[in-house]
């Protein structure tokens, strides 16, 4: 069974930069996996941030960007704001099916 | 305004069945795919499955843990997708979410809680 791995938790200072990664048990993540990134806050609907590796939605703040880094999908936040404290999930495509990563709890402290 | 709203959750006994609905508005539902995902309390998200549009032959795909037990369908005349869950297990207890997939997977609902317990 395919496993998608994210850092369980990360901490960043306000105004800082942080990169979250998303690895696949099948090997190198490429654009063919159409990496998506989502933000989840308590009591709120899941919010889409990034699709197809590095494309942003109209509502995605400019401080969020997606890329491929060292064989993984990556979500980078530059100039982190207190409101960015949340759980972040990646989602990868595998030949007809999708798999979520385990999520990264981001603390802004 | 784009909206997807889940309903139909509740308490069901192990081995039982339940059918969830995902009602959509604010966009051309028939052009869109619909995904289902779930989240057990305190746990991460799990992709459950999806159904594609008529243009893509209503193709479906499912996650390994629900394959053979869950079925996704849709009624484009009602702008609604469904998740039929059979042979439910206690580990299926979770909040179930739906989302649309129209070029991208973007709008998600607030979810509906399914509890499988005797």
Low-confidence stretches of chain B: none
Spans where pLDDT lies below 50 across 5 or more residues of chain A: none
- The N- and C-terminal alpha carbons of chain A lie at a distance of 36 Å
How are helices and strands ordered from N to C of chain A? Answer: EEEEEEEEEEE
Percentage of β-strand residues of chain A: over 45%
- Report the total helices of chain A: 0
How would the global form of chain B be characterised? globular
Roughly how many Å is the radius of gyration of chain A?
A: 13 Å
Count the DSSP helices of chain B. Answer: 0
Q: Tell me the helix content of chain A.
A: under 10%
Key traits:
heterodimer; A: 109 residues; mainly beta; 7-stranded mixed sheet; 4-stranded antiparallel sheet; globular; B: 118 residues; 11 strands; 0% helix
Give the helices and strands, then pairings.
The complex is a heterodimer of chains A (109) and B (118).
Chain A: E1 4-6, E2 9-12, E3 17-24, E4 36-40, E5 47-51, E6 55-56, E7 64-69, E8 72-78, E9 86-94, E10 97-100, E11 104-108
Parallel strand pairs in A: 2-11
Antiparallel strand pairs in A: 1-3, 3-8, 4-5, 4-9, 5-6, 7-8, 9-10, 9-11
Chain B: E1 3-7, E2 10-12, E3 18-25, E4 33-39, E5 45-51, E6 60-62, E7 70-75, E8 80-85, E9 94-102, E10 104-108, E11 112-116
Parallel strand pairs in B: 2-11
Antiparallel strand pairs in B: 1-3, 3-8, 4-5, 4-9, 5-6, 7-8, 9-10, 9-11
């Amino acid at each position: 069974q395919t496993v998608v791995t994210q850092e369980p938790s990360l901490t960043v200072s306000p105004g800082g930069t942080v990169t979250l990664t998303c690895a696949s048990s099948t090997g190198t993540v490429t654009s063919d996996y159409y990496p998506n990134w989502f933000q989840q806050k308590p009591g709120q609907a899941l919010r889409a941030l990034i699709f197809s590796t590095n494309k942003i939605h109209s509502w995605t703040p400019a401080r969020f960007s997606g890329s491929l880094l060292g064989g993984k999908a990556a979500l980078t936040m530059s100039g982190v704001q207190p409101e960015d404290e949340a759980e972040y999930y990646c989602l990868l495509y595998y030949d007809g099916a999708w798999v979520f990563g385990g999520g990264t709890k981001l603390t802004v402290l | 305004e784009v909206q997807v709203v889940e309903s139909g959750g509740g308490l069901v006994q192990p081995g039982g069945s339940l059918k969830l609905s995902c009602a959509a508005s604010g966009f051309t539902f028939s052009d869109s795919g619909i995904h289902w995902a779930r989240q057990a309390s305190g746990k991460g998200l799990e992709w459950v499955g999806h159904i594609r549009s008529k243009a893509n032959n209503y193709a479906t795909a499912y996650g390994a843990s629900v394959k053979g037990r869950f079925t996704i369908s849709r009624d484009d005349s009602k702008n609604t997708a469904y998740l039929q869950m059979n042979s439910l297990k206690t580990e299926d207890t979770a909040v179930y979410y739906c989302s649309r997939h129209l070029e991208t997977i973007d709008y998600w609902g607030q979810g509906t809680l399914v509890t499988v317990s005797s």
